Each structure stands twice: as structure tokens, then as C-alpha cells.
Fold this protein.
Amino acid sequence: MPEGPKYAYFQGKIVPIEEAKISVMTHALNYGTGAFGGIRAYWNDEDEQLYIFRPLDHFQRLLNSGRLLLMDLPYTPESMLEILLELLRKENYRTNVYIRPLIYKSSTGIGVRLHDLDADFTMFALPFGSYIPNEEGSKVTFSSWRRIDDNTIPARGKITGAYANSALIKTDAALAGFDEALVLNEDGHIAEGSAENFFIIRNGQAITPPIYSNILEGITRRTVIQLLCDEIGIPVVERQIDRTEVFLADEAFFCGTGVQIVAIAEVDHRPVGTGKLGPVVSRLRQLYFDTVRGKIPRYKEWCVPVYPA
Ligand code: PMP
């Protein structure tokens, strides 16, 4: 395992990671009143550069989650990016890294609520590889758990407490021998995976659940929609997907910052399409990895360089 992190941004400054500690009485630890992000930065060997992928979009979504939780934070996406650049330069990483920003109710004491509480922002970054082992052919099951509803805990916010739902989904799938799970809404349609968005390819169309299907508004999802439409030339339709439609799909995949693009080989022991990596997902994976490493001039504006040129 590569080393790191050595530092964290904590209580307004960058400190050694051992000093970034909170009290057991912290509100967010007791009640799940935090929100987090997951950002990747990719090392490009040719450019000798570390590129952060779409950080402003991630920080904007994080601050939006904070709004859902009534957090008043003295940060903007731009000021969070400045802190991230300083942190990554201090770590001096020359490898792929995963960045974890976290905003949380930092007051101590008892009482479930959102109002009249302080909030704080912390962030760290560590070297990181794959999230799912079988990226070119994962084995997936339908979870018996349902996705949290917008009227329960909004899935569009990356709220820490809501991730108990994802943890239930992921662990049942993993302990049953699957790589991941698909999770249905209360209405029985597909929402997403435990921590990633979902697409099928069927009859020359890419289909993905809409943002009102209790999904996280994924930034990779947004990227993939653009790559499918503009680069691969496949129309993308956002609509509800029935469970059995997955069994008839030509290809299917998960996408997210952590998982990147993961092909789905089978769902509940039924092969998806040929059961092998299909042409669209294969092409998309290639395009995505070139995009995030700043290799496609058209999308270079999404990639923020860490080190001076
Ligand atoms: N859905 C859920 C529930 C997630 O946790 C994630 C990971 N952040 C995603 C989708 C993918 O989102 P993104 O592409 O912004 O990382």
C-alpha cells in the first residue's frame, strides 16, 4: 500500500494528519449530520503533472449538500480548490490520488437537529487505485434493500448518515459473493449502485435513471453523458429502468469517481449481453481514462493541474 496521507486541512489550516482529530461528542459523528465528496486526481506521466478532475463541480455539489443540512460555511468552490492545491503540493504526490473533503456539524453535545450548530470543513488525500476488482466484468445482484427516498434523506446530497443505506447494500452483496449491487427505489425501478450511477446500452441507446429517481447527481454520470453523445455518438435517454430490462440489455455499466467506469458482466447470474466487455463500454473506458488524465484537448478544462508547468 502506498503511503499517505501525511497532512489534512483541519480547523482552518493544513496540519499533520495525526493532529486532525475530533471529539467523540461531535454532532456529525453521533447523528450522521455531515456531507462528503470524493474527487480523484490522476498522474499523467508524459506531462509530469497531477490533474484534479472537475474539482469545482465536486465542491459546488458539496456546498449544495451543506445547504440541505443548514450549514453556513465560509467557503466557495474556488476557495476549497485553493486549499486542495496547497494540500496536494505539500503531499507532493506523483501518483493517482483520491481526495476526501468532508463538511460536518462540529458542535459537541446532545440533541438531534440541524439548526443552531457550528459546521466545519476538513479534507485529506491519499494514493488510490481501483474500487471494484473486476472492472471489465463485475458480477452484480439486485439488493433486497431499497434506496432512500428524497422525502426520507435526499440522495442528491452526499449526506454521511445516508451512507448507512449504501453500506447495508454493499455488504450484503459482498458477503453473498458479488462485486456490487443494484438498488431499487420504493417504486421498484432501478436507482443506482451502492455508490455509483448506472447505465444500460440497449438497441443503440444509452439509458440511465433520471435525477428524480433518488440518485446522487453524479459528476461522472454527467461526464459520461457528454462522452457518449459527443464522442461515441450514442443518444442518451434519462428514464426509469425496469429490473428485467437489465437482463435484456446489450451492455451495462456503473460509473462514479471511485469506481470510474465498471462493466457489468452479469446480474443475478444472468449474463448481460454476451457477458463479456462490450464495444461501447470498452470505448467509453478508454475515453474516460484519457479524459481524466488531461489527454483530450477538448476536455482539458475539466483537469486542474496541481504543479506549476
Ligand atoms: N451514487 C452514489 C450513491 C455515490 O456515492 C457516488 C459516488 N460519489 C456516485 C453515485 C457517483 O458520483 P460521482 O460520479 O460524482 O462520483
Observations:
- The mean pLDDT is 97.
- The pocket of 4'-deoxy-4'-aminopyridoxal-5'-phosphate is lined by residues 38, 166, 192, 195-197, 216, 218-221, 256-258 (CB under 6 Å).
- The chain has two domains: 7-127, 138-292.
